[in-house]
Design a protein that fits this description.
- By secondary structure, the protein is α+β, with helices and mostly antiparallel strands.
- The protein is built from 2 helices and 15 strands.
- The strands form 2 sheets. Strands 1, 3, 4, 6, 11, 12, 13 and 15 form an 8-stranded antiparallel beta sheet that branches. Strands 2-5-14-7-8-9-10 form a 7-stranded antiparallel beta sheet, with no helix packed on it.
- It is elongated, with a radius of gyration of 28 Å.
- Keywords: Coiled coil.
- This is DUF1080 domain-containing protein.
Amino acid sequence: MKILAIVIVSILALGYLFVQWANKPENVAALQEKRKQDAAQKIEDAKKEAIRQKEQAVFQKEIEAKKAMMKLVIDENFAKNRFEQLAFRYEKIPYFKFEKNQLDFTGLIYKGQNAQDYFMTSKDDFGDFAAEMQTGTWGSDAFAGIFWDAQYKGDQNPKHYQAAYASPNTLYVETGDDDEHFNLGGLIASENNQVIRVERFGNHLTVSVNGRILFDENVESAGRGKLGVLIGHRGGIRPGPESISIGVKRFQVWQ
């Protein structure tokens, strides 16, 4: 009881001292000035947010207007079991084959095997564009997606590019800024059949998987470059062989 009484008395004493301190003229004036500054900052923040929303609405209208005027310029549907508009230079790679009107990438990855990326590339350079790719992917270390802003030197893979690609469980977005990844499923759940869509207007990038927008930001932009289909695997990082299978059913680009 004595300890409780001491605690209560201490709290009351501290409260009294705080009230006396707070009621000093200089402290009252400082508090009033702080409240005044906070109110002014709140008004300024509200103005900035209203301007941002207005600019965003204008920008969105501009994007929608550009979309309405876009034309389909690449349509790879593998009707003839080959690429018609993208450069394909992997005829000797056994993972690749064309059948049943799609591009297949199938095989085993063995322990210690190097990771590999494969690029099927447009002939022309692109600035603003919308691209969409339909795939079926099996094997957690296999991935497929879309790349753009690629700068080439000879027949080597591009060193500089941006990309959005996915395994059955994860979407990866690499923009040259902060690369990000997004969960598509867990160890049991996965999203094997995917429609990956990329829209790039200026430095604004939107990426969706099966209609679900996962990335919608302003990013670093190289301006113009090649684009196309990116397929690959992460190498032999498992204790034993892993089976991978990717089927690309369609790749379309609007400009």
